[in-house]
Amino acid sequence: MTDPRQSQSIFTRGAVDLGALAARNTAAAQRPAPSDTPATPAGANVIEVTEATFQADVIERSLTVPVVIDFYVAGSAPDLQFSPLLVKLATESAGAWVLARVDVETSPRLAQMFRIQNIPFIVAIVGGQPVDAFNQALPEPHLRQWIDAVLKAAGVEVEQPEDPRMLAADDAMAEGDLEAAEAAYRKILDETPGDIVAESGLAQVGLLRRTDGVDIAGALGAAQAAPDDVAAQLLAADVEVLTGEADQAYARLVALIRRTAGDDRETVRKHLVSLFTVAGPDDPAVAKARRALASALF
């Protein structure tokens, strides 16, 4: 598992022997914590961890629930700007995972064990072992993706909450404000490249723009009268997708690809792929049409 921004993993710098650390801390964990050590509330989603409490609060706890460690320096920029985001997501998780905060200045042995060179440094512990880490402040969408991947690796069923950015984009398109919808979908893709839903939404905006004010019957009739007119066939395919006849649209363009060459063929291919994006990759009709497209091209 890697994080969404492909930041450096702890595994590229040697394994972390948590077992050795646990053994070394067993006696310390059994001693009462100093009076200035923050208490560890039972069942809390956000806890402060020290060298003395690391075994119980992180290693043992991770046997039943994923633990994400936030190594920080009190009052530093990451502590003030990034750590609150982790706290927010941990609080929202309703116990699906626990955030363990470790001040590297007061717990230097933990920092040494994890070979921490800079902060923020975030590591996920599952089943008593580190499974992934990153060492840079991530935007909230990427952080959510990383946490979801950690939970899935731990066998936790992840319920995807509704994305308010997507809801706003969909609302704009439903209201016919294509400019606002396009801007919203592009913003999502800037923040979360490859988001399939946003790509589909953006493709739908393009489809609606191309078919705005088009006479459906007239477009289909023009395509029937001129089977080799590329522009007419593309518009007819758009109309068919818009009216729920996507299978027919795909077949139309695959057949046109078989009859064209050069730039015309590439234009048709790109248009067909854009229509696939409208439906999304999981649509059975898209899978079937992709096979037909591959056959027509090769």
What does this structure look like?
- The structure is a single chain.
- The chain is of the alpha/beta class.
- It folds into 3 domains: 10-153, 3-Layer(aba) Sandwich (Glutaredoxin), CATH 3.40.30; 164-210, no CATH class; 213-297, Alpha Horseshoe (Serine Threonine Protein Phosphatase 5, Tetratricopeptide repeat), CATH 1.25.40.10.
- The protein has helices at 18-30, 54-60, 77-81, 83-92, 108-113, 140-153, 164-174, 178-191, 196-211, 216-225, 230-242, 246-259, 262-279, 284-297, and strands at residues 46-48, 67-72, 98-103, 121-126, 129-134.
- A 5-stranded mixed β-sheet has the order 1-3-2-4-5, with helices on both faces.
- Helix 9 (196-211) crosses helix 11 (230-242).
- The longest helix has 18 residues, at 262-279.
- The chain is elongated, with a radius of gyration of 27 Å.
- It starts with 17 loop residues before the first helix and ends with a helix.
Question: Please, what is the oligomeric state?
Answer: single chain
Backbone CA Rg: 27 Å
State the strand order across the main sheet. Answer: 1-3-2-4-5
Count structural domains.
3
What percent of residues adopt helix (DSSP H or I)? 55-70%
Order of helices and strands: HEHEHHEHEEHHHHHHHHH
Name the beta content range. 5-15%
CATH topology of the largest domain: Glutaredoxin
Would you identify the CATH architecture of the largest domain?
A: 3-Layer(aba) Sandwich
Rounded to the nearest angstrom, the distance between the terminal CA atoms is: 35 Å
Average pLDDT metric: 84
General form: elongated
**DSSP helix count?**
14
- Class based on secondary structure composition and strand pairing: alpha/beta
Summarize the main sheet. Answer: 5 strands, mixed
Work out the number of β strands: 5
Q: Any idea what the CATH superfamily of the largest domain is called?
A: Glutaredoxin
CATH class of the largest domain: Alpha Beta
Q: What are the segments in which pLDDT stays under 50 over at least 5 consecutive residues? A: 2-17, 24-43
